[in-house]
Amino acid sequence: MQLKDQESTLQYIHISIPEILLGHIKSKNSWQNYDQEWSYRLDPPHASHPFQRDLYIIKSKNIEQEDIKLLLDNIINKNNKETQNIEGAKKNY
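User: That's the sequence. What structure does it adopt?
Assistant: Structure tokens below.
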């Protein structure tokens, strides 16, 4: 059995960025639309890592009207199914 070419589409990114690189950027600590397809949130510094900030980017057409938890749960569920398909194909091979 051959694995089908499965291209996973990127839907969620979490990056920690040194605060010195973001010093001149003013941003709200809430989800904001970036363009028609992506939204982002830049969190304030946290005590556990005071000199870096967390940047979250998510694929979303209208972030203000979508339920973020549901959106993330769907992404995680989809990724788990893809992993199970790959593992199942490996066992059958």
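The first helix runs from residue 68 to 92.
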